[in-house]
Amino acid sequence: MIMHVKNNWWTGSIVGLLLASSSLMLSAAEKEQRTLSTAQQTAVQDVQQRAEDLKAVNQSIWNYAEVGLQETKSSQLLIEKLEAEGFKVKSGVADMPTAFVASYGSGKPIIGILAEYDALPGLSQKTVPYRESQTEGGAGHACGHSGLGTAALGAALAVKEAVDKHGLKGTVRLYGTPAEETGLGKVYMLLDGQFEDLDICLHWHPGNNTNVHLGSSKALVSVKFTFTGLPSHASVSPESGVSALDAVELMNTGVNYMREHVKEDARMHYVIIDGGGQPNVVPAKATVWYYVRANAHEDLERYYRWVVDIAKGAALMTRTKLSIQVDTDNHELIPNTPLSELIHEKLTVIGPPEFSAEEKAFARRIQQPLIEEFGQTFPVAIDSRVHTLLESKTSSKGSTDVGDISWHIPTGGLRTTCFAAGNPGHSWQNVACIGSSIGEKGILYAAEALAATTVALLENPVLVKEAQADFDQRMKDRKYITLIPKGQKPPVKIR
Questions:
Q1: Which of these, 381, 397, 384, lies nearest to 429 by C-alpha position?
Q2: Domain boundary assignment for the chain
Q3: pTM for the whole thing?
Q4: For burial by CB atoms within 10 Å, which of 266, 432, 473, 484 has the most?
Q5: Can you tell me which residues the record assigns to a coiled coil (predicted)?
Q6: Of 358, 291, 288, residue with least CA distance to 328
Q7: Which overall architecture, per CATH, does domain 219-329 show?
Q8: Where are the beta strands (DSSP E) in 215-320?
Q9: How many CB atoms sit inside 10 A of residue 61's CB?
Q10: Over the stretch 165-220, which tens digit does the pLDDT of each residue have?
C-alpha cells in the first residue's frame, strides 16, 4: 500500500521554487531523467500502439476474477502474450502453478517488473456506477489487479521493442506473482531464489491518484492456530468433551488484553474460520486465523512470539492440543530515493491522461453512495494530477509482499489514477472503475512510465549504481529474518 502526503498551496509553491532553482545545478544524469531519450520514446509509443490489445487483456483478467493461487486463466493469458513476443518463460515456479518468470534480452543490468492478477472473494461487480454483481457471490478485482498485471505486461513488451530497435544491453524480466492479497506469492518466490540475480525491481498499483511511493509499510505475519479436543454431547455428557472452541475464545481474549501493551502502530486482527458444527456438539476442532502487524519487522517478531505464548496458554487452560501454521511473513517496504526520483520524472514528462466529462460523471455517480450513506465529501470526481514527490516519515497502514523483495533488491514503485477520487480500498467501486475507461487510461499511463523507467536504467548504468548505493545505506543495520519455517512449501489453497 502507498501513502500520499498532501501539501497545502504554500508548501507546494515553495517546493516548486526549490525545484526550479535546483534545476540550474543538475548533473548530466539528472538532466537525462527530465526528458525521454529516443529509446524511451520508442517504449512509450509501443504502449500506445498496443493500447487496444492491452485493454482486451485487462477485460479478460477482470472477467476471469480468479482469487489467489487459483489465477490459472489470468496467468496463462499473460504467459501466452509474452511467449508470442519471444520472452523465455518459466512457469509454475516456487511450487505455485500460477507463478512465472519471463525474461527477454541478455546480460546486466537485469530489471524486474512485478505483475499481480488475483481478485478478491465476494466482490463481483458490473462496470456500472451502482452496486450490481456480475456473478452473485463471485470474486472481483476490487484492488485493481487485472490492470496491475496488464500494465506490467505492456511495460515489458514495450521495453523489448526498445531493446530490439536500439540495441540496448541488459535484461527485462516480468515476474508473475500470485496471491498478493494474502501476501504469499513474492515471498515464496524470493525464498525459492527467483530474485537472486535481479539488479532493480519496479512495481506499481492502481490508485485514487498518481504518485510515486517513497515510504514504508507495515510488516505482517499471517498465521493459523488450530486447537484439537474431544467431541461429546454438549448436554448429555459435557464432562467428556474437550472444547477446541473454548481455546480459540480464550486465546482471542488474551490477545485483546495484549493490545493495551503494544506500540500504537501494532495491529492484531482475526477471524474464526472453523468453530464447530452445531451447538449440541462440543467442538473437537477449531481454527482462528490471525494477521499480526507492526511498522518494523523486529517488533512483529516480538508480537508474534507473544501471540504464540497466548495460544499455548489457551491450550493449557482447555487441555487441547495446538498446531500453528504460518502461511506467510511480509516485511516492511524499504524505499529507494534515486529510483523514486527517476520514476517521478518519467510520470511528469509523459504526463497524466485527461478524463472526459462522461468519465467524470461516472466517477461522481460512484461517489454518490459514499456521500449519502457516510457523509463523505469529494472536491473532485477524478484526481488526475501527478502529486509532489515527498518521502513519508511514517509507515502506511497496509502491508505488501513487495516489502520482502525490497529487503534484497533496490525497489521503486508508483501509482496511477485508475479509480474515482476517494474510493475505499477493496470496494465494488474499484471493481467498476478498473473495468471502465477510467481504469484503462491509468493502466496505459502506468505501462508507459514503467517502460520509460526501465529503458532509462538499461541506458544509464549510473542510475542503477545510485539506486544500489541508496539501498546499501538503508540496509546496513538490517538483517532479514523470516517467520516461515525453513523449507516450507506455499499453501495449495488460502481458504
A1: 381
A2: 36-217+332-475, 219-329
A3: 0.91
A4: 432
A5: none
A6: 291
A7: 2-Layer Sandwich (3.30)
A8: 219-228, 267-274, 285-294
A9: 29
A10: 999 999 999 999 999 999 999 999 999 999 999 999 999 999 999 999 899 999 99
